[in-house]
Write a structure and sequence with these properties.
Blueprint (H helix, E strand, L loop, with lengths): L1 H36 L17 H7 L2 H33 L5 H13 L2 H12 L5 H8 L14 H26 L3 H9 L4 H12 L1 H16 L3 H6 L11 H11 L3 H25 L8
Helix pairs in contact: 1-13, 2-13, 3-7, 3-10, 4-7, 7-10, 10-13, 12-13
Amino acid sequence: MRRIFRRDTVEGWLLLLPAMAFLAAFTHWPVVATLIDSFYSTPKSRRPSRFVGLDNYQQMVGDPVFWKAVSNNLWFALGTIPLAIGLALLMAVLVNDRLRGQTWVRMAFFTPTILPLIAVANIWLFFYTPQYGLLAQALGVFGLGDRNWLGSQETALACVTAVAVWKEAGFFMLFYLAALQQLPPQLAEAAALEGASRWTYFRRVQLPLLMPTTLFVLVNAVINAFRMVDHIVVLTKGGPDNASTLLLYHIYQVGFSYWDTGYAAALTVVLLATLAAIAILQYGVLERRIHYR
């Protein structure tokens, strides 16, 4: 009996070994290597890297572009997270009910999710183009003046936020729709017998039961808000005057445009630590308020 148990244990570990090897090689080791690189200077052609301690982190504290990127990222997160989650929940409730053309509506809501990020950015780049863009043409019908949406410091970040919400809402809708379809139909029947309105049934029954899904979606929405870079590269390149520079795009610039790998590693460590702290806080605090039954 013990021999069979040992054999099953060895076979289980052998089956897990390929996945563990890939996880260690492409996830865990890069994190450790980035942490180590953050304490070293950037190697040059005639000067190898040397240990500099916390110099890269001290440079970060005095970097105005870094703080501008942090501020932009916070505003970007505050704009995308509640809007994308709220819109996803609204769409899921809508397509969960019986309506004419339900399949086509679901497909229309989900289509932005399956489009490549670069393709989405180029589509919206056409929308925002001054004079010739779709938005400029629509405003011209009402006699409103045209403006450079992506070239203005007041509107550049808001335009990128709108693109992110349009892209992510359909993806989050899938999780809400799956959760809604798992709810027992007897709950809706009981609510109808009690004379509860559609809004009361949603607020008192559906929304509390969807809280585990909301927590999962919230964690993903926060991560997405801090790893956005594709849309920035295509739409604004961080401009004008860093008005739309987000933290990951700043890391991309430092690492691949300025080739300061040591400073980029320090920025990456701060970003990863921030995301890990937010995730722990979300699961540690919000999970206690979730009612699974």
